[in-house]
Amino acid sequence: MSQLENEAQKFRDTFLTIRTEVSKFIVGQTDIIDNVLTAVVCGGHVLLEGVPGLGKTALVNTLSKALHLRFGRIQFTPDLLPSDVVGTQILVEEEGRRNLRFQPGPVFCNILLADEINRATPKTQAALLETMQEKRVTVAGQTHSLDSPFFVLATQNPIEQDGTYPLPEAQLDRFFFKLQVGLPDHDGFAEILNRTSGNSQPEIQAVAHGEDIIAMGLTLREIPVAKDVQDHLIRIVRNTHPENEKAPEKIKKYVRNGASPRAAQAMLLAARCKALLDNRFHVSREDVDSCAGPALCHRMILSFEGEADGISSADLVKAAIRQAY
Predict the structure, then answer these.
(1) Is the peptide bond prior to 82 cis by the omega test (within 30 degrees of 0)?
(2) Which H helix or E strand runs over 236?
(3) DSSP annotation string for 130-159
(4) Is the confidence at residue 19, as pLDDT, over 70?
(5) Helices 210-220 and 261-277, interaxial angle, to 10°?
(6) Confidence class of residue 198 from pLDDT cuts 50, 70 and 90?
(7) Running DSSP on this structure, what letter comes out for residue 117?
(8) Is there a single domain that holds both residue 13 and residue 120?
(9) What is the pLDDT of residues 142-163, one digit of tens each?
(10) pLDDT of 87-142, one tens digit each?
(11) One domain, residues 174 and 264
């Protein structure tokens, strides 16, 4: 076997091992688990949206246990300050002298759970922008680098509006995927009760380290992408822009701003991951199409007509995909 084949086999084995470990506790959310793991190995952040009680926080906690990484959690509230997130300068006395020392905030970890992120004020939400994009923190003119790998897994409740602040477009664009966590089916409900209502709880073991995640990210970047597949991806992203003359009529009518180039980057990395998991060393158009929804929906800003008519971003993404063929 070639070196790439060996790396690809290790990629699949590690990915499936992590998925199996997380699935010991999380029931009936296979697609959500796969997409979260895809974003993690690609080095991206994830926004999980759903009503309370669906296991969003439990998924992040379980993933942190399955990965031998430092875990941090911030419960976002309206009175949370930026310094509560990134840290602050504190006055300390050393050898009879008083000095300012940087006290790191909870963001200095490998996996950060930003729970109910839309409850914090825009000023506090903005404190995460630099950490999510640059993987660093600047306080009092000094820059402090975060450990690698670093991921933000955020949750938000879409139905409760009192005391919440919608995430700005610039911050939404930093999320690799936005995933909708839905209600489990009847069998899923039964399995959740069986696993959580007894005296014994599933024990989650750490099955991968930070070095494994970094190596997986390097491996998937070696997967080649044919020019026609890349052109297909570009056409999909460009079709989300109403000013594009080839965009579908629904996009031109209901979308104010389309997806950014960062969306194309996310789709390309995720498609490579899909190909590797399918034991292929090339990316197909189907791989690209399957990643379009989670990567594009939150990056498309609806117009007034789109908001008024209750248009689904997922339907608009499907129209953009059809138009790309």
Answers:
(1) no
(2) helix 227-238
(3) HHHHHSEEEETTEEEEPPSS-EEEEEE-SS
(4) yes
(5) 100
(6) low
(7) G
(8) yes
(9) 888 888 899 999 998 877 666 6
(10) 888 888 777 788 888 888 899 999 999 999 888 888 888 888 888 888 888 887 88
(11) no
| pTM (2 d.p.) | 0.90
Beta carbons of 133 and 157 less than 8 angstroms apart? no
Kindly state whether residue 8 falls inside one of the protein's structural domains: yes
HSE-CB for 135 with a 13 A CA cutoff? 12
Looking at residue 79, the DSSP 8-state letter turns out to be: T
Q: What is the DSSP code (8-state) at residue 297? A: G
* Residue reference for tokens 């990965």: 67
User: What gap in Å lies between CA 266 and CA 42, rounded to an integer?
Assistant: 8
* Spatial distance between the Cα atoms of 86 and 125, rounded to a whole number of angstroms: 11
pLDDT at site 160: 66
CB neighbours of residue 286 within 10 Å? 13
Q: Which residue in the block uniquely carries the two structure tokens 């999980």?
A: 48
Residue ending a domain, among 204, 222, 240, is: 222
- Judgement on whether residues 159 and 49 belong to the same structural domain of the protein: yes
Domain around 128: 1-79+106-222
**155/249 same-domain check:** no
SS3 98: strand
Beta-bridge mates of residue 209: 68
Minimum mean pLDDT range among 29-38, 186-195, 214-223: 186-195
Task: Please give the average per-residue pLDDT across 275-300, as a whole number.
Answer: 93
What element of type H or E holds 11? helix 3-22
Among 159, 188, 222, the domain-final residue is 222
- Confidence band of 250 (pLDDT split at 50, 70, 90): very high
Separation of alpha carbons 165 and 265, rounded Å: 27
CB 90 within 8 A of CB 101: yes
